[in-house]
Q: What sequence folds into this?
């Protein structure tokens, strides 16, 4: 099959998904003419493949489907005259007039979850919407025998943001544990879009809390192999997000065999179930507002004292089980990750645009 494909290729969310899908499209024999969005930032391992797909621009099939993996407000630019498919990843339940126009102008809209599919169909009339789930690379994010150490390590990865519940996690961690507990919280939260002052404010919130000495701030690492090694050195991923467009880190933690704690809302409900996750029930939604990126356009999960207590209980439960020598390997999560491969994403994408 011939395909014209546009996406970023960098360490951010769209870039990670874009590269992994491109790699698998090429591996399964799809002839991809790749039109990167922005500058390419990738490892040497992928350089030859990426360049070959970029070189296919010189003889692209102008009647082949065109897939643009990018924001819903910027889907107009497509290659050739074939089927035009936009592939946005979004977190809120409401669109602006511009976003609705761009979505409605597509021949097909691809989304990564049924949660997102329902939102598109509710907000934009007569849009042909198909689900193409994202994935995980198990050759990188693989499970290994548990490490024999006494400290229970919780890990959060994701740029500092109210949406990701970082204001909530510190409250739950302090509610769950005392200074005498053998526990650590590792925070890996580099955000290139905030100032150094804002970064320090987030860190101060955690460090100055009652159990702040148990919090470790991890620097950004160079590649996903290093990320995976950090995940395998931890015990549980904790992601109390108000809304997510997919949540790559949660699936990667599952693939490493780690426990995960998440809110039972938004796109990660596509793969997070009671069999592989500790889910925080969400009773209400609220206006999505952080005064920076979200200013009341739509809604996200409302997280209050009840949800904080549930999150703290889940964290205490993981700590208690490990302290008592129980097996806390996430077997259900490993099985989920085997299904949600990037190869599966590529195959689902091809099926969705045929």
A:
């Amino acid at each position: 099959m011939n395909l014209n494909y546009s996406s970023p290729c960098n360490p951010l969310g769209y870039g990670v998904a874009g590269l992994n899908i491109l790699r698998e499209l090429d591996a399964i024999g799809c002839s991809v003419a790749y039109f990167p969005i922005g500058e390419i930032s990738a490892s040497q391992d992928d350089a030859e493949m990426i360049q070959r797909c970029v070189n296919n621009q010189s003889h692209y099939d102008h009647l082949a489907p065109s897939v643009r993996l990018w924001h819903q407000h910027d889907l107009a630019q497509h290659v050739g005259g074939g089927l035009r498919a936009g592939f946005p990843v979004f977190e809120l339940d409401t669109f602006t007039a511009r976003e609705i126009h761009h979505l409605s102008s597509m021949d097909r809209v691809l989304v990564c979850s049924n949660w997102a599919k329902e939102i598109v169909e509710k907000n934009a009339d007569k849009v042909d919407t198909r689900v193409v789930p994202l994935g995980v690379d198990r050759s990188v994010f693989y499970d290994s025998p548990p490490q024999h150490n006494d400290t229970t390590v919780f890990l959060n990865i994701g740029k500092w943001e109210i949406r990701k519940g970082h204001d909530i996690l510190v409250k739950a961690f302090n509610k769950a544990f005392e200074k005498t507990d053998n526990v650590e919280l590792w925070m890996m939260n580099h955000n290139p879009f905030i100032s150094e002052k804002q970064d320090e404010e987030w860190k101060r919130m955690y460090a100055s809390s009652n159990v702040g000495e148990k919090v470790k701030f991890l620097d950004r690492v160079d590649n996903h192999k290093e990320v995976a090694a950090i995940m395998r050195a931890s015990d549980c991923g904790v992601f109390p997000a108000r809304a997510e467009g997919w949540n790559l880190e949660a699936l990667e933690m599952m693939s490493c065999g780690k426990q995960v704690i998440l809110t039972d809302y938004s796109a990660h409900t596509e793969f997070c179930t009671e069999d592989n996750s500790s889910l925080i029930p969400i009773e209400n939604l609220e206006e999505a507002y952080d005064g920076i990126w979200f200013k009341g356009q739509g809604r996200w999960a409302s997280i209050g004292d009840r949800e904080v207590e549930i999150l703290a209980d889940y964290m205490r439960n993981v700590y208690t089980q490990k302290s008592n020598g129980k097996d806390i390997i996430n077997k259900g999560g490993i099985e989920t990750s085997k299904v949600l491969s990037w190869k599966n994403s590529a195959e689902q994408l091809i099926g969705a645009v045929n």
The mean pLDDT is 96. The chain has two domains: 2-132, 152-339.
